[in-house]
Design goal:
Elements lengths: L7 H28 L17 H6 L5 H33 L5 H13 L2 H12 L8 H25 L3 H9 L4 H12 L1 H17 L2 H6 L7 H10 L5 H31 L11
């Protein structure tokens, strides 16, 4: 098929179209960021006066917002640990092992990403409610792991498949044990993937609403649940400050993942095998 020659007008048109689309997609984010610095109590855009009052209210020690942020951070940290453990073990089995019914196992691992979250939340509620664990940060973290672990597994499978297995075979031929190979070769090379899996697991848990809503109590409300309650009957301008912080957290997380990937790719061009004996 013959391609039409590119013209200057065509380049300018594509550039303008892409810019317009990006501005349209970024418009809600910009509105939230600007509104979060408004001084009025109704969240108008654009603000007539600017202030950091809503950020101060969000970070006030002992307040509902600070308590919910601390609780969400604790739950997200626990979820990250659980997801990395499950992700590393399951990804190793799927990427390196010869499992029977490999496709069925792979589909079962990814099933939580396809099932509606409200269905998963209802199932977890029916599971933890008889045990009296509703409102427990550990129970909520285990529930969030159901959603975060498949993401960690996908990232780790992609990372492990990108590692040259000949490095592991060379270490095994020199007498290194499986544990030594994993500790000295596989996991150091998979560090960028581990960090990316940890970041996305943390964000998945920190932003999750349905499971937290089903399993929370009046004394244990995560940040998304508190935001929902604040907007259910009224508009609390503090929500705009919280949203701005969440946007900044997502941007920093993506920047961290990109930096780690870049550093990992740069290191891949150097000598990756340790100098000292592996045994």
């Amino acid at each position: 098929m013959m391609e039409l020659p590119a013209t200057r007008a065509g380049h300018i048109g594509r550039a303008l179209s892409a810019t317009a689309i990006l501005l349209f997609l970024a418009m809600p984010i910009v509105i939230i960021l600007v509104t979060s610095f408004g001084a009025d109590g109704i969240g108008t855009f654009p603000p007539k006066e600017y202030s950091t009052h809503w950020y101060e209210q969000m970070a006030a020690p002992g307040g509902n917002w600070a308590t919910s942020i601390a609780l969400s951070s604790l739950i997200a940290s626990l979820t990250t640990v659980f997801s990395l453990i499950l992700g590393a073990t399951a990804a190793t089995a799927l990427a390196r092992g010869r499992l029977p019914l490999h496709t069925a196992v792979y589909g079962l691992v990814l099933a939580p990403l396809l099932i509606p979250q409200v269905v998963i939340a209802l199932g977890l509620f029916l599971f933890f409610e008889p045990a009296g664990m509703l409102g427990s940060p550990l129970a909520i973290a285990l529930g969030h792991t159901v959603l975060a672990a498949p993401i960690a597994i996908l990232i780790m499978i992609s990372t492990l498949r990108g590692i040259d297995e000949r490095l592991e075979d060379a270490a095994a031929s020199m007498g290194a044990s499986r544990l030594t190979i994993a500790r000295r070769i596989t996991f150091p090379l998979a560090t960028p993937g581990l960090i990316a899996a940890a970041v996305f697991s943390f964000i998945t848990s920190f932003d999750e609403f349905f499971i937290a809503q089903f399993m929370s109590t009046p004394d244990t409300r995560t940040l998304p649940v508190l935001v929902f309650n604040a907007l259910q009957f009224d508009v609390d301008p503090t929500v705009t400050a919280v949203s701005a912080v969440l946007i900044a957290l997502a941007i920093l997380a993506l920047a961290l993942v990109a930096l780690v990937r870049k550093l990992g790719g740069h290191r891949g061009g150097q000598n990756v095998l340790p100098v000292e004996p592996l045994t």
